[in-house]
Please model this.
Amino acid sequence: MIDENETQTLSVLRGQVKWFDPTKGFGFVVAEEGGPDILLHANVLRNFGQSSVADGAGIEISVQETTRGMQAVEVLAIDPPDPIEGEGLEDLGLPLDLSEAGPMEPARVKWFDKAKGFGFANVFGRPEDVFIHVEVLRRSGLADLQPGEAICLRASDGKRGCMAVLVTAWDAVITDAPE
Model:
């Protein structure tokens, strides 16, 4: 018996995240060239190293047609959504220029409450917690964080102490390191 997935050809396309709900474990992507919504399952996103993705984020994915419609099978790249007018990081006392921030460091999420709009992470080897604002998370292309989740971040001193200015997948320290 031949598995139907073995006979399917994969296509690579770019699009935008329509919505993604980490609690439900899935969301949908709209392709740049139009067509039906594409299912993005949490497992596919986790294989990319993220547990969530922000609504409106740009995304490059490999997709296949299934009996249930188009589905993403691999995430290749995620670009943060465009900033929303009126929401400024300068209001938080954060630098807009990343050259003013510290280096990319591995960390673990202590807790994050999307409804409250913030949370904290522990950077390995540092005694103090790092504050993470939901707008920094969104501008980093993420929608939510789970307690214990491994991430990487760049931090800077702000109005509330040590604050994240960029949050990425945990393996960014390895993949973004200069050779």
